[in-house]
Amino acid sequence: KNQVEQSPQSLIILEGKNCTLQCNYTVSPFSNLRWYKQDTGRGPVSLTIMTFSENTKSNGRYTATLDADTKQSSLHITASQLSDSASYICVVSDRGSTLGRLYFGRGTQLTVWP
Amino acid sequence: EADIYQTPRYLVIGTGKKITLECSQTMGHDKMYWYQQDPGMELHLIHYSYGVNSTEKGDLSSESTVSRIRTEHFPLTLESARPSHTSQYLCASSDQGKNTGELFFGEGSRLTVL
Fold first, then answer.
1. Which of A59, B74, B85, B106 could covalently link to B4 via disulfide, CB atoms 3.0 to 4.6 Å apart?
2. Span of A12-16, A48-52, A78-82 with lowest mean pLDDT
3. Distance from B49 to chain A by nearest Cα, in Å?
């Protein structure tokens, strides 16, 4: 069973609107959580990285939140643009090894329409 | 922008052929990884390396092999390709010295085996 669940699986919004993507995880122990953006046919690119003590982190129009108690994270996109159309992947790292094993969600496919 | 490069970007080959997917990074990262990604599914780790002469198998059973003779180079080889190997292959690297271990991905190699 995947230890990182993302919702919704896909989302369509109009340009200029806001949206929020969800990530729930069961990974334990917890080291950090990352959100990646993956354009079609490209490799994922990091948006934010959050550790246990961080609740909110922003990167331009992207704001990630983390609730380590409930093991939930969200990625809020403000004033969406056509270029935001992509898959957004949540990745959680544990502290179980020096390598810091990574657990990937299946991603939320966001489509922004003009 | 990440300095990690994959070639070829696209490859269509027949069953039984031997192929090598190339991956190079110029960031001096010790850790390198190969992931397999199918549409709508999470990334699966197939190989990783801590550094030169270090290679390990990942979570997903794979018939491919890797080598790490130089820090910057981490090629993946399939001795005899089959249609089940059709997938997107993503190479990544990370800085072992940083606790967050952010991954930098290449653009991917999309392999189709007929």
1. B106
2. A48-52
3. 10
Nearest C-alpha neighbor of A42 from the set B62, B98, B6: B6
- Say whether A82 sits in a helix, a strand or coil: helix
AA identity, residue A87 = S
* A46–B102 CB contact, under 8 Å: yes
Structure tokens at A57: 């982190």
Query: Quick check: B28 and B70 in contact, CB under 8 A?
Result: no
DSSP secondary structure string, B40-106? TS--EEEEEESSTT--EE-SS--S-EE--SBTTB--EEESS--GGG-EEEEEEEE-TTSTT---EE-
- The SS3 call for residue B98 is coil
User: Mean pLDDT over all residues of chain A?
Assistant: 92
Q: For residue B52, give both structure tokens.
A: 């030169």
Q: Do B42 and A105 touch (CB under 8 A)?
A: yes
pLDDT at position A51 is 87
Sorting pLDDT into bands at 50, 70 and 90, what band is B37?
very high
Find which of B5, B27, B35, B42 to mutate to test the A interface (most A CBs within 10 Å of its CB): B42
- Tell me, what's the pLDDT at B20? 97
Q: CA angle, corner A45, sides to A41 and A47, nearest 5?
A: 140
Picking from B31, B42, B106, the nearest residue to A104 by CB comes out as: B42
